């Protein structure tokens, strides 16, 4: 397993897990359940650990894919900036979750304001993580990159599955079976010179 694999595996846990933690915390408030609240805290603490792995495996993953194919540096930098903000917010929220969990384990009351602050933090961090994941997806998936107004996606070439390589995107054919799609850069048109 290399850094790119580790990054892809670990990055999905905090993105999905933060929203699961929010659902548990929201359910705990709705049904007045301390067990659900503690479960939400525990899920988020686990998300914090995976967020650390995802954050620190990002630069080595970039170095690996940079050697394999040409990728826009601006895509990677946009992803890195939002990922850093999400990671720093996750650290702060994990410290808060740990503090709340210790208070609960010592059977001290946790005020409703602290619970609301924690829930709002989950919404903010979850949104940052989703944004970061969307930007990260654009690095390896050109089909999810936004196009300029009026600009078409690059033409695609369908290939026999036996000719697929890492630069192709596997897809399911509507009639059954697998096909591979490769984005082909259009050949620039020669500009005609004007005679003045």
In short:
By secondary structure, the chain is mainly alpha-helical. It is 64% helix and 7% strand. The chain folds into two domains: 3-144, Up-down Bundle (Four Helix Bundle (Hemerythrin (Met), subunit A)), CATH 1.20.120; 150-196, no CATH class.
Descriptive report:
By secondary structure, this protein is mainly alpha-helical. The chain has 2 domains: 3-144, Four Helix Bundle (Hemerythrin (Met), subunit A) (Up-down Bundle), CATH 1.20.120; 150-196, no CATH class. The protein is 64% helix and 7% strand. The protein is built from 4 helices and 3 strands. It has helices at 3-31, 34-68, 73-105, 112-140; strands at residues 156-159, 169-172, 178-183. It has a 3-stranded antiparallel beta sheet, with no helix packed on it. A hairpin with a 5-residue loop joins β2 (169-172) and β3 (178-183). The longest helix is centred in the first third of the chain and has 35 residues, at 34-68. The protein is elongated, with a radius of gyration of 23 Å.
Annotate the secondary structure layout.
Layout: H1 3-31, H2 34-68, H3 73-105, H4 112-140, E1 156-159, E2 169-172, E3 178-183
Antiparallel strand pairs: 1-3, 2-3
Helix pairs in contact: 1-2, 1-4, 2-3, 3-4
- The quaternary structure here is single chain
- Look at the structure and give the CATH class of the largest domain: Mainly Alpha
**Major sheet summary line:** 3 strands, antiparallel
By DSSP, the count of extended strands is: 3
Head-to-tail CA distance between termini: 62 Å
CATH architecture of the largest domain: Up-down Bundle
Q: Structural class per helix/strand content? A: mainly alpha
